[in-house]
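Can't paste images in this forum, so I'm doing it all in text. The chain is below; anyone willing to post the predicted structure tokens underneath?
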Amino acid sequence: MSLFDLSGQVAIVTGSSRGIGRAIAERLAEHGAHVVISSRKQHACDDVAAAIDARHGTGRALAVAASISSKDALQALVERTIAEFGRIDVLVCNAASNPYYGPQAGIGDEQFRKILDNNVLSNHWLIQLCAPQMIERRSGAIVIVSSIGGLRGSTTIGAYCISKAADMQLARNLAHEYGPHGVRVNCIAPGLIKTDFAKALWDNPETLKRATVGVPLRRIGEPDEIAGAAVYLASRASSFTTGQTLVCDGGATI
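Text version of the structure:
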């Protein structure tokens, strides 16, 4: 059996209607998992779920819209998943927000709170909702999509970087708590990836040049290049890996 086989597993992936989240959901499904597609807009989720079903067979994907800013919506997401599939084996906390671009001194209180709420507190909520049934089965994998911003400073996305560093610590803390129960918690820290979310950092040729000139691979990444890391962390291949942050950045942080 393949170390990366996810047959029979059930995975929730937030922010999976596009970008990194969609790539992760598609690759988890390719490796055998049932996937729950979730983002704010139901029609966007429906489109992705339909594409996955068309490729892998009816019933492989479920579309459930949920705003990460609403604890009730996240609870409904978990309840719908369990009602449909009976369990949750893998949770990928990918959805995030960054409503502010500029120096830390200029950020408003509400913008700062929104970043921390959506990028840290929402992950805490969703993990709290999914972990008990994982603990009961003594098996589960939780993956938080962080960022290399959590490993270094920034003069333009400072609050976002703070939230991503917090996600890494959340994974370390929960790895201690859940490890004795057979549940693993890890982070992925992507570098600059060609997504709509990061468009301000790569859309301008001059900005793109500055972002890649010192990167060993001399380019930015594609969403699918993060998906493999998620498959690894979700699967038996990483059964002795927990509390870690897997950096996928083309070498930018070295």
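The mean pLDDT is 95. Residues 10-248 form a domain with the Rossmann fold fold (CATH 3.40.50.720).
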